[in-house]
Every structure is written in C-alpha cells, then in structure tokens.
Amino acid sequence: MFKKIVLLAFLLCCMFNFAQVVTKYQIKHLKLNTKYPHFGLSLGGTNRILFTSYALSKKGKVKKAFDGEGILRLYEGVITNDGDIKGIKPILIDAKANIESITSAVLSADGQLLYITTTYTNKNRPKGTFNKANFHIEVGEYKSGIGFTNFKVLPFCKPKFSYAHPALSPDGKCLYFTANVKGGRETTKGASDIFKVDILDATTYGPIKNLGAKVNSYSREIFPTFGADNTLYFASNKSNGKGGYDLYQSKIDKDGTFGKAQALPKPINSKADDLSLVMLPNTSSGFIVSKREGGVGDSDIYYFKIIKE
After folding, report:
1. Nearest to 53 by CA among 297, 217, 302, 290
2. Is 246 in contact with 272 (CB distance < 8 Å)?
3. What is each CA distance from 156 to 135, 161, 204, 211, in whole angstroms?
4. Long-range contacts for 184-192 (Cβ within 8 Å, ≥24 apart)?
5. Of the N and C termini of the chain, which has fewer Cβ atoms inside 10 Å?
6. Is the CB of residue 85 less than 8 Å from the CB of residue 93?
C-alpha cells in the first residue's frame, strides 16, 4: 500500500511539474534596420544569415534600375552570440551575370550554389508574351574572385507563372518554393502555394509537387524555410490569423508527409504582417521579418529566443 502511495505521489508531482512548464519568447529589434525594408531571410551555414534590402549609393539613396524601380540586393551578415547581425556586406554577384534585382535567395550547404528569386531582363526574356512582373528562380555557381555567376533559369519555371522564395531541405536533396501554377494535378489552390521538387543533379530536377492541403490554403503562402529539426516554417494570409500574414509551422513525419500547419503563438505572431522566420540550428532561437508596431522600416528583422520555465 505504501509503495502505491509513493508511486501516486511521484506521478502527481511529475504531472504538476509538466503542467508548470511555460514557454516564453524574447523578441529584440535589430540595429541593422532602417527606413528601408529588410526581408527574404535564409541561413548561410551555421552563423551567417542572408537577407534582401535596397542597394544604396554612397549618399544613402536607393539605386534605381532603368525602369525607375529600386534595385534589391542580397546581403549577408555574421550572427553574434547575443542575436545581433554584424559585418554586413553584399553577396558578390558577377556584374556580367545581368541580375537586376534579387528578392530572396538560399545557399547550398557547401556555399557553391546560390538559388535566387528574380525577374527576366531584356537579355534572357523568353519568347512570346508573358507577364513581366512574374518572378522565376535561377541558380548560379560560385567562382573565386568573381562571385556567383553563370546563372541559369531552373528548367521547371514556365514564363506564364510566377516562382519565388527558394528554400532547401536540411539534406539538400529537395528545393522548396512558392508558385501560382495553374492547371493539372499539382495546380495552385490559392494565390500562391508551396511546392517542392527533387534535385536529381546539378541541372536536372524531378516533377514539381504541391505540398497539399495540410500546408497550403485558398489564400497565399510565402517564404518557406526549414529548421534543423525538419520543421517547415512559412507565412500565410489565410483566415483566422492574428494579422494579415501570420507565421506557421508544419512538422514532417518520418514517412516524409507534412503535418497540419499550426500558427505560431504571440509574440512571434502579431496583429501586423509577420512575413518569414528562420530557426537557428539550436532550434531555440532565430529571426523573423515583421511589420509590427515599433519597427522603423516597411519590414524589419527581429531576433527571438525561446525560454522554457
């Protein structure tokens, strides 16, 4: 009888302690933010982060393309132990590659390939009529002293559709992206869905596959990224959220299927647009892009840390 009482007390104690575990989030606005937007986050190895912002002149003014639009450039910085981003510099792109603007990008694990979201230029525009506003994904290779060069449009990108926001699976064998592909079995359900494609070799890819209703909705899904724990993070403006765009996570089962997407809690999500999240390899901290109150630009980068008490 005494043993049963002791066991019951132990179980009750464990249940009480489990119930008392509280997850809190610390959010920090970063000093790198300015009046200009910062977005398109991705990790470059374990301690570097890539993001997009405007290219600026020496006088701090936005550089303009021939059409008058501001030029978006890809930057990288080193992540410090306290969650700041230091040593920010542009990613070196070969000027002869004729890349006008980059809205998001991801590096391969070895740093030799760069997948970018961009638009067609007069030098590589496809034949026939197409929507000039459509994005597509290109991949370039790194050459010492030159930077990333020899960019090629990925073969599955069709000019009549828009493809953006590339992300790589943790093992580097699958490329994930958003698209508005219409028609056929893998049609987009909303304004844009998240798709994946197997990377067979440097120039060959499998058929694109829609991630399905557990991830995608009849709204717009954007900016997919992966955590080291094989969790997919993305933003969506589907109904019942806290703001316009909210951040979601979907955990991948052992069989490769995606679990039903769950909205992340406050203060990761806010009443404003929360646009993307990258989780650091420690899976207890990372960065988000948000337009929340208190920012200084159109969209700012914030550091977050998960604390369990």
Report:
1. 297
2. no
3. 13, 10, 10, 16
4. 186/210, 188/216, 189/213, 189/216, 189/217, 189/218, 190/216, 190/217, 190/218, 190/219, 190/220, 190/221, 190/238, 191/219, 191/220, 192/162, 192/164, 192/220, 192/221, 192/222
5. N
6. no
SS3 12: helix
Contact 113, 153 (CB under 8 A): no
pLDDT along the chain (309 residues), means of 10: 49 52 87 95 92 92 84 96 95 92 94 94 78 91 95 94 96 95 87 95 92 95 93 93 90 89 94 96 94 93 91
Give the residue from 43, 31, 120, 126 showing the smallest Cα distance to 84: 31
- The answer to whether 114 and 52 are in contact (CB under 8 A) is no
Whole-angstrom Cα distance, residue 288 to residue 28? 10
Domain boundaries, the chain: 25-308
SS3 19: helix
The 8-class DSSP code of residue 4 comes to H
Q: What six digits make up the tokens of 308?
A: 């369990």
The model's pTM is: 0.90
CATH fold for the domain made of 25-308: Neuraminidase (2.120.10)
Burial class from Cβ neighbours inside 10 Å (0-12, 13-18, 19+) for residue 71 reads: middle
Residue 190 and residue 193: Cα distance in Å, rounded? 6
pLDDT, position 2: 45
Q: What is the dihedral of CA 292, 293, 295, 298, to 10 degrees?
A: 60
CA distances from 125 to 22, 28, 185, 218 (A): 53, 42, 28, 30
H or E element in which residue 3 lies: helix 2-19
Contacts of 240 (CB under 8 A, 6+ apart): none
